[in-house]
Amino acid sequence: MKKITIAIDGFSSTGKSTLAKQLAKHLGYVYVDSGAMYRAVTYFAMQNGCIGPDFFDKQTLINSLPYIKLHFEFNPDLGFAEMYLNGVNVEAAIRTIEVSGYVSKIAEVSEVRAKLVEQQQQMGKDKGIVMDGRDIGTVVFPDAELKIFMTASPETRARRRYDELQAKGQNVSFEAVLKNVEERDHIDTHREDSPLVMADGAIEIDNSALTREEQFEAVLELVAKVSKSL
């Protein structure tokens, strides 16, 4: 089948990355977790005193962007690429509830988005790529052959995220996770620069009642249909 670009957008904790990894592995495509890139910038901001519970020094972060180097390295033991920030593996550090609490604010910054979108477009110039995020089908790859928009109820997404954090040994309450999910939804859909919306031509998938396997099979059918039509 002819290689295509697959753009997966949607709300937080809808399983975008899980689906994207499954597709990339099955199809032999490159997988890029754009959310990890924003999380890495967020982690940098936290570590360098640019953001905290009651402050956000946006200009210092913007001035620091030339010194933020991001890249992915494939980990054969895990079966996916991990996020590196300035040469350091930050895959575990960027997945905490603390980073989740700030990432949508960081993603609102136009200069941050411009830097990361440019890198993401470069990664996908040869097609054969699966990328997930908030603006992949609308901004990064508006001409993607297949665009997916994933959604589920806030409670369903919070439960999934809560279970995931618990499994990693992070002591958080379900109420805190649900609040974080709802706050991120509001920021993601109301920001001025590249708000979360369903791209033109995207196919919406509400996976509230779907298993990972059912979702994967449904999207594989879409990939086959699109590839054959080219």
TrEMBL record:
Question: Where would you find this protein in the cell?
Answer: Cytoplasm
> What are the UniProt keywords, alphabetically?
ATP-binding, Cytoplasm, Kinase, Nucleotide-binding, Transferase
Entries under InterPro entries matching the protein: Cytidylate_kin, Cytidylate_kinase_dom, P-loop_NTPase
Q: Does the keyword Transcription regulation apply?
A: no
So what does this thing catalyse? CMP + ATP = CDP + ADP; dCMP + ATP = dCDP + ADP
Where in this chain does the record put each Cytidylate kinase domain? 6-224
Q: Where does ATP bind?
A: G10, F11, S12, S13, T14, G15, K16, S17, T18
Which Pfam families does its entry note?
Cytidylate_kin
Q: Name one GO molecular function term.
A: kinase activity
Question: What Enzyme Commission number(s) does the record list for this chain?
Answer: 2.7.4.25
The main place the protein resides is cytoplasm
Superkingdom as given in the UniProt entry: Bacteria
SUPFAM superfamilies the record matches: P-loop containing nucleoside triphosphate hydrolases
- Spell out the NCBIfam families in the cross-references: cmk
The UniProt entry, under PANTHER family, shows: CYTIDYLATE KINASE, CYTIDYLATE KINASE/PANTOATE-BETA-ALANINE LIGASE
What family is it from?
Belongs to the cytidylate kinase family. Type 1 subfamily.
Q: What is this protein called?
A: Cytidylate kinase
Species per Swiss-Prot/TrEMBL record: Flavobacterium sedimenticola
